[in-house]
Specification:
- The protein is mostly helical.
- It contains four helices and two strands.
- The chain has a single domain, classed as Winged helix-like DNA-binding domain superfamily/Winged helix DNA-binding domain (Arc Repressor Mutant, subunit A, Orthogonal Bundle).
- Helix content is 36%, strand content 4%.
- A two-stranded parallel sheet has the order 1-2.
- The longest helix has 11 residues.
Length: 102
Amino acid sequence: MGFFERVYEVVKTIPYGKVMTYGDIATLLGNPRAARQVGWALHVNPSPETIPCYRVVNRFGMVSKAFAFGGENRQRELLEKEGIIFDEKGCVKPCFFATNVL
């Protein structure tokens, strides 16, 4: 299984109402310096209906300005539909970060 496919498998395990960072995913895959590659994989997500890439945020907990499936407003909208709350700076509140995946 290639790196992108491994990224997709991890993203599928992020629970409803939770998020992870690109770096979290890279670390789980054994390469903590591959956060940018995780982003590239999610940008070309072949199946956004089953691979919830909108649940991945940057290291500050902010949505991506370049969210490939509708922009940052769409990503935030999808997260808020799952009950995720953002602070006044636009960051996901810490309690919404997934800790037990895979």
